[in-house]
Every structure is written in structure tokens, then in C-alpha cells.
Design brief:
The protein contains 2 helices and 6 strands; from the N terminus they run αββββββα. By secondary structure, it is α+β, with helices and mostly antiparallel strands. The longest helix is centred in the N-terminal third of the chain and has 29 residues, at 2-30. It is elongated and about 70 Å long.
Length: 115
Amino acid sequence: MEYIKEKLPLIIGIIVFLILCGIAYYYLFIGTTIYYTQIDNTKVKEITNSDMSYEYTLDCYKENGKKKLIKFKTSRELRESAFLKIEYMEITGVHQWEEVQYDELPEKVQDKYNK
């Protein structure tokens, strides 16, 4: 019994460390949220000395219609009024984006935009 009491702080430390690693892994690699937006080229800023020459700051919407202002960079100017589906991670920002059609937007997001 005494042996277990001596090792208890070490065991608790290892468990806490593993939990923290799991949380960090989730936020860095798994925890993506999908947002939708429409390109507005009046809200783009050109950046010099970078591979990603354009920085967009756009209102984006979750599937439930909740709004978030998101900033992301691209290597080219995007097509005006195109709709994007964005994979966003809290820690790293925009992970990936793809152009989608209006009909592919969730209903609550469609309500935010005119067809």
C-alpha cells in the first residue's frame, strides 16, 4: 500500500499530461468548424512580399446562421460573389476552403444572402 502512495503523484501527473495532450491534439488537428461566406472583393487587401498575396476579411456563417468575422489569405483574387465553404480551426484559422453553389448552402445561411 505504501508503494502506491509513493507513486500516486507520478500517476496523477501522467494522467493530467495525457488529458492535456488529448485536448491540444483536438484543437490543433480535429476541431474544425464549417463556415460559409460570399466573396466581396471590396474587402480584400493586397499583401506584398508574400506567396499569399490577398487577405480577405469576411462575415462568415455557421450552418445555424451564427456569424463570425474571419480573415484568410489566398494566392489569387477570388471570383466576385462566389460562395465558399470554409473549414476553420480556432487555433490555426482557415484550414481549407472550396467554392460551392448557392443551393449547397444550409438554409439558414441562404437566408443571409440573395441568390
